[in-house]
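Weekly modeling sync, notes
Attendees: AB, CL, MP (scribe)

Item 1: holo prediction request
CL wants a bound-state model with zinc ion before deciding which constructs to order. AB pointed out that an apo prediction alone won't tell us much about the pocket. Agreed to run with the ligand included and paste results into these notes for async review.

Input as submitted:
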Amino acid sequence: MSCWLQTKSWEEAKIAIEKSKGVAIIPVGSVEQHGLHLPVGTDTYVAMTLAEEAAGRTDAIVVPPVWFGWSPHHMVLPGTVTIRPEVLIELTYDIIKSLSEHGLKKIILINGHRIVNVVWMQICAQRAQTDLGVTIKIFDPAYMSKDIVGSLGFGPVGHAEEVETSHMMARYPDLVHLEKAVDNPIKDTPLYSVDPCYTHDTLCYVPSTLEHARHAAKVSGGCTGEPTKSDAEKGRIYHEHLVKNLVSVIQSLQ
Ligand SMILES: [Zn+2]
């Protein structure tokens, strides 16, 4: 039986909610350019595949994803859709409110869009916890894989780089066109890196300027990092590690 809420009748949903022990996962991502080699839906796809796999091992319910994120810095390339963070907060709050009224009061927000979604998710989560009496966990793959990316030899977190490209190769190989990937190595930006593995990560992040985005568009089709170093087997190990961590978050709520 599928873990996706949208595939169920209301009767099936009622049974699934009981089985879930009140745990629902909302995958959240973005629709934004991901270089020449990955689809614009990459961030949502990675959140969906993690949700699907962990739910299959735990009976959590997976809610239809919030496909769009806040992506103003990627509007220089076609295919990107950006939603204002205040709208995302309201939308996600209403999803959580609806779920909570049906007994799903333990919610995991999987963030496929990295640092850019985290800030509005924190505001939404705080408000939902206070006003609705629900428990919210944010599951961010970049933070939840800190202990393994070094041993996999992945470089710093960029955009459409070897981390998410390897993950996509492992889970959605038909959507990856590695032969089109162009590297754009990341320059050291002490105090302003947004890589969770970097000990000087300060979280003082502001989405790139359009000028910076135009530069990346010109040199690499929009990617930053070294996607040509991607590897499906490393992506599989990375995925499995994240699923294991996500399962343990779900179990802590059940
Ligand atoms: Zn991405």
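Recorded for review: The mean pLDDT is 94.
Action items: CL to compare against the apo run; MP to circulate these notes.
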